[in-house]
Amino acid sequence: MTAPAGDTRTDIPGLPRPIRWSAATAAFQIEGARDEGGRGRSVWDLWVQTPGKVIDGSTAEPGPDSYHRWAEDVALAAGLGLDRYRFSISWTRVQPDGTGPSNPAGLDYYSRLVDDLLAAGVTPFPTLYHWDLPVPIHEAGGWCSRDTAARFADYTALVADRLGDRVKNWYTINEPAMTTLQGYAVGALAPGEFLLFDALPTAHHQLLAHGLATRALRAAGADAVGVANNHTHVRPLNPESPADRSAVDAYDLLHNRIFADPILTGAYPDLSAFGHEMPVREGDMETICQAPDFYAVNFYNPTTVTAPTGEDNPIPFDIVPTPGAPVTGFGDEWPIVPEALTALLVDFTERYRDLPPLIVSENGASFPEPDRAARVDDADRISYLDGHIRAVGAAIAAGADVEEYTVWSLIDNFEWADGFTQRFGLVHVDFDTAERTPKASYDWYRRVIEGNRA
């Protein structure tokens, strides 16, 4: 089997058994057409319109322009031989103000996308919420408000009513951890709140929204429903230090356990050390922990922590670079340690009794690449994906029930606060023309999929 140009490996990562293969995108990051089709405004529209919030001043417009060029994306998904394509549905396209009747043009767009995927032999696997909170919902309290969970359930019912006859597999909410930690706790992403530990109720309201949406989707005939959360394997800078091990426990609780435990065990971990209790009402935990059909993990990198410096530091850990690890285009923020994915998947398998099948719902890396349309020999990305697919295989061999792997991303896209400066795609996108050019990693991933089925 011949490697594409730029591929540093000539072999294909083997797995102990066949699994399903996917690639992912998200609506705000690829659709463009922010003023078309009756679309409303989300918190990310506010963010990109605020000077200084996006590194390169870009606004996600037009970007890949998938609102008009969805058929090209379907063809790319089919060309890879994907089992499933993970895309997201924009709340503001379906329900412009976050309440009230649906927007027919928005639902028509997603209905065409679903039909074309099915015709191409690719199973649609939509995400109902990938961070695009409608502005009126934000102004009414956003995820700090319990009412947002009810509004999300209403929106879910509108989507399920239109697409549920053809779509049977659903993600409810993407990365509630990042919404809480980056969106509400430290203000690094939209909506840009700086609440620190007062942001914790947003975790409960998102999980409640997941539970309510699960009921709505199952009532509409869904076969499989789950949440896609960002998880990380937490490591101490100094393994022999009790203080660093305590820092690991604190960060693991905030990033991993308060989002996974309620779904998988029906209870929150002890939050007394942070001076908070979740705003749980009667029946909430039963709603949140309805037996999930799968548990999905977005994984990019481990997190190394150490004991905090300064006596008055309210945060019980410091995040530091991972010693000796190579990095992606994000630098020290995103170390490359594939074995950390194995450790995380095995840890989940050992930590949670009766764990449902696992899905790796995002995994990928950004590296510097040209802006203009070009065939990119992205050896660094191939090496990253190769290592992490092998890590999935090692986790399966160790007893983890992983049934699906998903590359982020199918195409280059708008990377949130980093704008168009970071490229994750298997397919290069010229953001001036929206021209798509498959990279070497696209051909490599196609061969990985073929090899796993052989």
UniProtKB/TrEMBL annotation:
GO cellular component, alphabetical, reads:
cytosol
Q: What class of enzyme is it?
A: hydrolase
UniProt EC number: 3.2.1.21
Q: What Gene Ontology molecular-function terms does this entry list? A: beta-glucosidase activity
From the UniProt annotation, give the residues forming the signal peptide. Answer: none
Q: Where does substrate bind?
A: 29, 130, 174, 300, 408, 415-416
What reaction does this catalyse?
Hydrolysis of terminal, non-reducing beta-D-glucosyl residues with release of beta-D-glucose
| Keyword field contains Hydrolase | yes
Q: What are the positions of the active site?
A: 175 (proton donor), 362 (nucleophile)
Kindly state which keywords UniProt assigns to this record, in alphabetical order.
Answer: Carbohydrate metabolism, Cellulose degradation, Glycosidase, Hydrolase, Polysaccharide degradation
Work out whether the entry's keyword set contains Hydrolase.
yes
GO annotations under biological process? cellulose catabolic process
Similarity annotation: Belongs to the glycosyl hydrolase 1 family.
Which NCBIfam families does UniProt cross-reference here?
Answer: BGL
Protein's name in the database: Beta-glucosidase
Report the source organism. Answer: Gordonia sihwensis NBRC 108236
